[in-house]
Amino acid sequence: MKVTKINSILSFKANKMPKSQAEYFNKKLLSSDSVDIFCHVATDEDAFNSAKIMYDYLRDNGIKPRIICNNADENYGYDNKTYDIIDINKNKTELQRAKTALCLDFSDPIRIRGKAFEYLSSFPKSNVFCIDHHETANPITDSNIIKTEEIVAPKIKQIKNGYLDTTAKSAASILVRFFEALNISMSDNQKESAFCAMADDMNKEKLINISNGQILKSDEFEDNINAKEVFENIENSISDKKKTEILSHLDVLSRLNSKEKAFRMSLYKNIKITPNKKFAYVIIPPDDKNWKKIGGDTPTASKILRDFRTRILEHKQTDEFIDKDLLSKIQEIQAIAVFYPDTKAGRYRVSMHSNKDYAFRIIDLIREQYYSPLKAGGHPNRAGGSTQTLDKNKCAKWANNFICAGQNLHY
């Protein structure tokens, strides 16, 4: 059944997606008979739920979609009866390529790895489309600039086969604007997916705080029209029951087992600080036993690490995890990194949080002075990178680039 255009419940005041661009993007997608929807490596709630939103839309328009990601069953327990999921790392047969590739929540090749990257690379660039809210130095799509007389999102040169808006707080919020520009009403399932995606990403950004099934909105959230209007329109359009279910699903830290709790506490014991007192870090070696006990690089582990980084950076006087001795040492911290192995992908990773764009400035300094081929990116204050090795010595040397940059950056 083809989706029909009806009056939307939304009416945006800021940062609309230009209608001409939405129509161009939509026309190209709907002219395909099949679309493979790609999620970035270490698929998160925004990437997965954005994929579900577009899967529903494409399917209802008579197009055959698939979702391409990694560690799908282990990480999210996808409903394979509803969505055609290809766990690229487990797939044993050669995939018959779809006509079109759609990349959601990423637009740069540094955000996709291994078999997924190899498969995506098999598509002609003119058949690769993307929607993203990250800074992109090297778009994975056709990089011709689309011409439009309408105002586009600030700070971004729009690429031909996609839409980029770094002022957006999630890919899902851009999809909401996509449907708004086309005057298409989203289904209840799509709204619930968008709410889950936006809530998780804004929780990462500390625009909101999710605790005990409730949302606490920060002053920054209230001041950010782009985030506030999209989120609250979607939030107010879903039932309280569904909202509670989604928030409970996202509140992983309230459901940790004993091993996960012990690992969480160990991070605060193993923190190190550079002599300039500006850069803090924790190194989890490739063969770390406690990391293996909690299952390695899982969504739960990711949330534990992210919570740790934000607590250290905020260094609140009343934080239950930070004692007085540690609090006195981290008062001047401007950036914090955690280094950890992704055993299944055979790589070593770093995730950083910072103030005043220092995460990006550390990455730039590494490329300029220490290691020019560094693969890293993300947001100016929430970034990451990886190297394709689990050799202990090589990982230590790679991590040392960040430590040196953190020490020598002019804050």
Keywords summarizing the entry:
411 residues, alpha/beta, inorganic pyrophosphatase (n-terminal core), Diaminopimelate Epimerase, Chain A, domain 1, 2 domains, 14 strands, 40% helix, globular, disordered N terminus
Describe what this molecule looks like in 3D.
With about 400 residues, the chain is of the alpha/beta class. It has a 6-stranded parallel beta sheet. It has a 6-stranded mixed beta sheet with strand order 9-10-11-12-14-13. Mean pLDDT is about 90; it is low at about 1-10 and about 145-150. Helices cover about 40% and strands about 15% of the residues. A hairpin with a 4-residue loop joins strand 11 and strand 12. It is built from 15 helices and 14 strands. It has 2 domains: about 20-250, inorganic pyrophosphatase (n-terminal core) (Alpha-Beta Complex); about 255-410, Diaminopimelate Epimerase, Chain A, domain 1, CATH 3.10.310. The chain has helices spanning about 20-30, 45-60, 70-75, 115-120, 170-180, 190-205, 220-225, 225-235, 240-250, 260-270, 290-295, 300-315, 325-330, 360-370, 390-410; strands spanning about 35-40, 65-70, 85, 100-105, 130, 160-165, 210, 215, 270-275, 280-285, 335-340, 345-355, 375-380, 380-385.
What's the arrangement of strands in the largest beta sheet?
A: 3-2-1-4-5-6
Helix vs. strand class: alpha/beta
Q: What percentage of amino acids are in beta strands?
A: 15-25%
Oligomer: single chain
Radius of gyration: 21 Å
Q: Please provide the count of β strands.
A: 14
Q: Count up the domains.
A: 2
CATH topology of the largest domain: inorganic pyrophosphatase (n-terminal core)
CATH architecture of the largest domain: Alpha-Beta Complex
- CATH homologous superfamily of the largest domain? inorganic pyrophosphatase (n-terminal core)
